[in-house]
Amino acid sequence: MKGTVNILGVPFSKLTLNETVEELTDHIQQEQPKLYHLITANPEITITHQTDKLLQTIVKEADLITPDGIGIVMAAKRKGDPVPERVTGYDLLLRLLERGNKENWSFYFLGTDEETSLKAVQEISSRYPNVVVAGRHHGFFSEGQESGILQGIGHLKPDVLIIAMGAPYTDKWIYKNKANLTNVRVAFGVGGSLDVIAGKVTATPAIWKKLNLEWLHRLLTVPVAKGQKSRWRRQSALPKFFYRAIIRK
Hints:
This protein starts with a strand and ends with a helix. Strand 5, helix 6 (114-127) and strand 6 (132-137) form a beta-alpha-beta unit. The protein is built from 13 helices and 8 strands. Helix 1 (17-28) packs across helix 5 (89-103) and helix 2 (43-49) crosses helix 13. It is of the alpha/beta class. The strands form 2 sheets. A 6-stranded parallel β-sheet has the order 4-3-8-7-5-6, sandwiched between helices. InterPro entries: WecG_TagA_CpsF. This is Glycosyltransferase.
């Protein structure tokens, strides 16, 4: 491990995307299963962490927190302790699917709506034929259905549990159910990644990524799920982050 850099109380990993994949691969290939909880954190989550006591506890107990946002990269550089690059949930998912296709890993996909979940899994099975899709379930389940979903995941014992239910809800869900996820090796949230894979949402063009404007592309093009804050309201955390982590000494 290369250590971490502390940004507003959140210890961000200084591993590259490749090194993060190797870290997770080593854990998956261990004989004794143990849940590895990875969090991909952006400036919005970092600001939420300032006042959310439960999220603070979750962050302390997480196994790895990756810098999912150019703001985190800029803040680390401003601090004089840079991270090498962003490690996003989407990029990490694709890389793990690639590795899983070589290693015959099993995945369980939890989240998004039923139609998108089905399309995403079909696309993943087509692109990565050696990946074992252990199971899937949409993210709009009731409290009464939750125990059955957890029992199913425990029975299927997936190497990787991918959750697309939004942050920080995803990480709170993982934390709450750790005792029921002991047969899972790695779990992390991927935001709207399944929507992109399913074709529901257009992937960010390369030029937007090159200009570090991926957040703006999402802001302008990605619809907001029912019950969630508007994306414009959520982005109001960005000025707070830039002031506290980059401008203010």
